[in-house]
Amino acid sequence: MTFDSSAPAGQAVASRWLLPCLCTGAFLVFAQTFMVAPLIPQLAMLFHSPVDWVGLAIPAYIVPEAIATLAIGPLSDRIGRNRVILGSLGTFIVLTALTATPCGVGAFIGWRIITGTAAAGIVPISLTLIGDVIPFTRRGKAVGYLFGSIAGGTATGAAVGALLEPLIGWRALFLIVAALSVLLFAIMVIARVLPRHARTATVPPWSAVMRGYARLLQLARAQRTYGYVLLNAILQSGLFTWLGVYLHGRFGLSETGIGLMLIGYGVPGMLFGPIIGKLADRYGRSIIVPSGVVLTGVCALSLAAPLPLNGVRIAIILLSLGFDLTHPQLAAIATDLGGGRGQAVALMAFALFSGYGVGSLLFQAALTLGFSNAFIIFGIAAGIGAAFAFRLFRNERPHHVGTAV
Hints:
CATH class: Mainly Alpha
Radius of gyration: 20 Å
Structural class: mainly alpha
CATH architecture: Up-down Bundle
């Protein structure tokens, strides 16, 4: 990240901490989100509940988060990114700890709904803040770090959940996330990491907010960006959420084995996310985004085949690479759509989180046809989306960026 070299020493220190803290917050939020995924069979047994009912714990978290972003984004334009991020993180800490308390699936899902709503001000507003302080021509690398943390949190949450639950129990997992979030909160407050001025100079009235959303959705660039954020989130979430059940059913893997398989999902993002972002800054996103959708489809179709265990492991890693080629680049475009950046990113986050929730539900519905057919359906959908993407994103080249058309 590049900041003003003339800034006071204290602000310069805060600047060095900014991106690591934002990435850590994203990591923890998504670790908490998806550490439930491999525990679905175990939680169903503990709660004496059907697997399908426990499986709602992920969309129950993500869908309210998606809806809340529509208000949180404009709110950050009004009161500042720092207040929204810290307020959301503080609430997230309390509610994550309380998620460890229920004794039934209904209460568990209820806490997930409330916690997801609180988390809406962390990742989306972190992305908005990155858009505030980094020019678009250098933004890809920083966004790559953020989304690499998201992919890493997704994989680590699922893996650690599966590995540690037999040792310490599922309740302790939520308490650990809450404790780590307290540490992050303390660092952000004590070091004054977040810039106090990070809010827009002119704030539209709430009556103008909805008109702003409508204007954004009239832009062709916004339509294709949000559309593919939604599509790719559906594909990625649907495939990843149910991998634990798939691995248990097909290979008979224990929770430990499932965890070791799923941790591969975060490897490409943590290793290559910033590199991909830097390449996107230099050469544009016209090829990178469609290629990511293609790779997602190939992985889905590969999982439909009778692959050996190591083949499935490779497919999971490449599925994550498909995420890294698409979502960070689409998010960077969203920060460049014009208007209130908080609104533009809020719509992106709404599409992203809605897709995560809907994708889990759609794949669950497709499972009535069996895992192989569900993978094929998602693979075909990705292939169709990729075919259109090469044409729709053809203008996302360096000399076209910054134009909201």
